[in-house]
Design goal:
By secondary structure, the protein is α+β, with helices and mostly antiparallel strands. It is built from nine helices and six strands.
């Protein structure tokens, strides 16, 4: 009980200090920034000219193939059971990891979509075509992965895994063209607090890949109050301060027949890294990628039990 009170007090004190300091030094919109709500994506359309370079297209294709090959050889081959094969079959694993894996496929689709977009834009495609082809490329990647799973005796081709990855691939496009998506960021955090997935009790023992370690992963929706405030009120609110809701699972959730399998819900402070507003495009791109990762922050677990964590996902 004393430990919980100490964590609660420390989290509140840390948040209060940060809030006061940021409010006293509230940022302003620099005149060089064309969008006061920091829509990095709308900047790209004026910063980059659309002129296709075929040697860049070829280089992009070669890099993509080599990256997929390396990922297969060094990461996914051990999780795809190369020594075992089955006839091609479908399987919708709705009970696996209490469906948290669908969020994982979505997050993978987002990163693929962002990466393909940067590649197509660099090669000279227009902004709209780059987003469109990036989403299609992410979908194609997920289809290829699930076709491989379709021949595995332990898995199968999952239509909903592909659908989740496809929606993730088109998420960057939604952030660019759907106004409401500018007020929320989707984030991921990972920290090994439990070895249950790796210790041999998991059904995937020996084939463990960290991307399937859903026990230690949390998926977040981070909301940005600053962007919703009227211009006159923004100076009273720290621009970087956001609030996030997260979803994870407990240790038993990876065991299909275990008892007491449940989801875990978290509420946390968060940091909107876009508030730093770098002016160069490469820096904006870096911030855009970093903002997909939920950094440690004061957090409370609200379901199924109540806990305080000073710097979740680190539990101590």
């Amino acid at each position: 009980m004393k430990g919980s009170i100490s964590k609660c007090f420390a989290a509140f004190a840390l948040a209060l200090v940060c809030l006061v300091q940021s409010t006293q030094a509230a940022p302003y919109d620099p005149p060089t920034w064309r969008d006061s709500t920091w829509d990095y994506r709308s900047e790209d359309s004026v910063d980059i000219k659309s002129e296709i370079s075929w040697w860049k297209v070829g280089g992009l294709g070669a890099l993509t193939l080599s990256s997929f090959g390396a990922a297969y050889i060094f990461v996914f081959s051990k999780g795809w059971w190369d020594d075992e094969r089955s006839h091609f079959h479908f399987e919708n694993d709705f009970d696996y990891a209490l469906n948290l894996d669908k969020f994982g496929h979505f997050a993978a689709g987002v990163i693929l979509g962002e990466s393909f977009y940067e590649g197509y834009r660099w090669a000279g495609l227009s902004e709209f075509k780059s987003y469109l082809f990036a989403g299609v490329s992410a979908m194609t990647t997920h289809i290829a992965i699930d076709v491989k799973d379709g021949y595995s005796p332990k898995w199968g081709f999952s239509v909903f895994d592909v659908l989740s990855g496809t929606l993730g691939g088109f998420w960057p496009m939604a952030e660019r063209y759907v106004p409401i998506c500018k007020y929320v960021d989707l984030k991921w955090s990972y920290w090994i607090n439990s070895d249950e997935y790796y210790n041999g009790k998991s059904s995937h023992a020996g084939d463990a890949v960290f991307t399937d370690d859903y026990i230690n992963q949390t998926f977040w929706a981070s909301f940005k109050p600053y962007r919703l405030l009227p211009a006159g009120a923004r100076k009273y609110y720290p621009s970087w301060l956001a609030f996030a809701a997260g979803l994870s699972i407990n240790e038993n959730a990876i065991h299909m027949k275990a008892e007491n399998r449940h989801r875990e819900v978290y509420l946390a402070f968060d940091y909107d890294l876009e508030a730093f507003r770098p002016q160069s495009r490469w820096a904006r791109t870096l911030i855009k990628y970093l903002n997909y990762f939920k950094l440690p922050a004061p957090t409370i677990q609200v379901y199924p039990e109540f806990h305080w964590y000073l710097l979740y996902p680190i539990k101590f």
